[in-house]
Amino acid sequence: MTQFADLASLREARRAQAAASRESGARESDSLPTGRLTTKQFNRHLAHVLEEQTRSAIAKYVGDVHPTEVLDLARRVAKLRARYVATALAAGGASAAPTKAEIEEMRFMRERIEELEYALATVREAIANEVVQVENVIAD
Predict the structure, then answer these.
(1) pLDDT score at 104
(2) CB-based burial of residue 99 (10 Å sphere; 0-12 exposed, 13-18 middle, 19+ buried)?
(3) What is the Cα 4 distance to its own chain's centre?
């Protein structure tokens, strides 16, 4: 798994590289078209600006991602799921009802799993939409 210190230095190097190649000032696509817009036109423009800003921010703060970073996140989710299942089965098989502390621990584990699953889904969506570039992975 990726060590935090290594990941932090990797992210810092990516930020520096992206900052060196980044354009300064607002993008032309950020400005509104002239004249009156329908709500559909405005929402399409808003979606376009959001996509461009997201791409720009990801390039600035993330850069290219190494495949092991994504795999490490998936492994983390899998391990947490397994721990949760084991804890649930242990609580279900015990002769006494789970204690308040055991229930709170399970709730905490579930919240961590849900958050990391959401994070993984977001990363996968960004990869599928080619917002995040994974090294040695080409578009379909």
Answers:
(1) 94
(2) exposed
(3) 16
**Shortest CA distance to 131 belongs to which of 44, 41, 37, 62?**
62
Residue pLDDT, tens place only, 49-69: 998 898 889 888 888 899 999
pLDDT of residue 17: 63
Q: Three-state DSSP class for 65?
A: strand
Q: Which residue has the higher pLDDT, 53 or 31?
A: 53
Specify whether the CB–CB gap between 55 and 131 falls below 8 A. yes
pTM of the prediction? 0.68
Interatomic CA distance for residues 26 and 49, integer angstroms:
11
Start-to-end CA distance of the chain, whole Å, equals 27
Tokens linked to 11: 């992210």
